[in-house]
Design brief:
Elements (H helix, E strand, L loop, with lengths): L1 H6 L3 H22 L23 H22 L7 H28 L14 H4 L6 H33 L2 E2 L9 H21 L2 H19 L4 E2 L1 H23 L4 H6 L9 H9 L4
Antiparallel strand pairs: 1-2
Helix pairs in contact: 3-4, 4-6, 6-8, 7-9
């Protein structure tokens, strides 16, 4: 029996079997280590933050949900032009709700990576979702994805860019000497642009961003007819948005021929998420 089991196998069958064994071994190693490349995703030891408890990033996100609304309120208080207080308060409340929805969804989503979840695939196309029982559980994860990526991001970023735009409308002066950025502002231009680039690409909010940018350009042309010029704060915001568009364009050109990401982002606006790029290409290197 032993000779019949091994001696009749062709070289092609032996090679296929060896490849399957290697693939199973690789999958087992990834599962026991928390998924591909997962050790490189978390800087702090996993023992400090169990998967059923908030992580360091979650605590930072909680702080963001408290500090950023306060900063936005302070920002709008310094603007000579503002909206009624009731509109500002509703915007801030909506911002906090959206950011909090995103906090919960993003926290669960990143923990799914430890189980083999792949961000460059849709929820239903992920291998771990195809093995869930009962299958209706996939609908629950799709609902979580909707709350995180669509509802949460809309409630988060629309008030955020609305307040930025209202602040921008007050950044005009008749004194041309104020239309110069100090050296400190130039040094912060690149980090600010990269921050907005990450918000737009990871948050998939290009329409909100580009609408805000075009509205800023329209305000500039309108105020220019009145003899008003952007001050240093307005110039900093305008240059940050302009550089963000350059970064987004470079990001799109770089990943233009990526067929896998094209499948996940099939719409007219093709802007892949950085985390999807990470799980697809960076993890595969490890």
């Amino acid at each position: 029996m032993h000779s019949r089991k091994t001696g009749t196998r062709s070289p092609l069958a032996q090679r296929d079997r060896r490849q399957r064994v290697e693939k199973d071994a690789e999958f087992g190693a990834e599962a026991t280590s928390g998924g591909p490349g997962v050790r490189r995703q978390i800087i702090l030891p996993l023992d400090w933050f169990p998967l059923n408890k908030p992580s360091a990033g979650d605590y930072f996100h909680m702080a963001y949900n408290i500090i950023t609304p306060l900063l936005l309120l302070k920002l709008i208080e310094r603007s000579p032009k503002t909206l009624p207080n009731s509109v500002i308060y509703v915007s801030i409340i909506t911002f906090v709700m959206g950011a909090s929805i995103h906090l919960v969804g993003d926290s669960v989503n990143h923990r799914l990576i430890f189980s083999g979840y792949q961000l460059h695939l849709s929820v239903r196309d992920n291998p771990i979702m195809q093995n869930l029982t009962p299958p209706t559980l996939v609908d629950s994860f799709e609902l979580l994805y909707y709350y995180d990526e669509y509802l949460g991001h809309s409630m988060w970023y629309i008030p955020f860019f609305l307040i930025l735009f209202i602040y921008f409308t007050g950044c005009f002066s008749k004194i041309r000497a104020e239309s110069r950025m100090p050296l400190s502002a130039w040094t912060l231009l690149a980090p600010s642009s990269l921050y907005y680039w990450y918000l737009v690409t990871e948050g998939q909010i290009f329409i909100i961003f580009i609408f805000t940018f075009f509205a800023m350009l329209a305000i500039i042309m309108h105020q220019k007819r009145k003899g008003l010029h952007l001050d240093s704060n307005g110039l900093f915001l305008l240059y940050s948005f302009s550089a963000t568009l350059i970064f987004i364009a470079a990001w799109i050109v770089w990943l233009w021929n990526d067929q896998i990401l094209r499948k996940k982002y099939p719409g007219v606006i093709y802007i892949p998420e950085p985390w999807a790029f990470y799980t697809l290409h960076i993890n595969s290197l490890h």
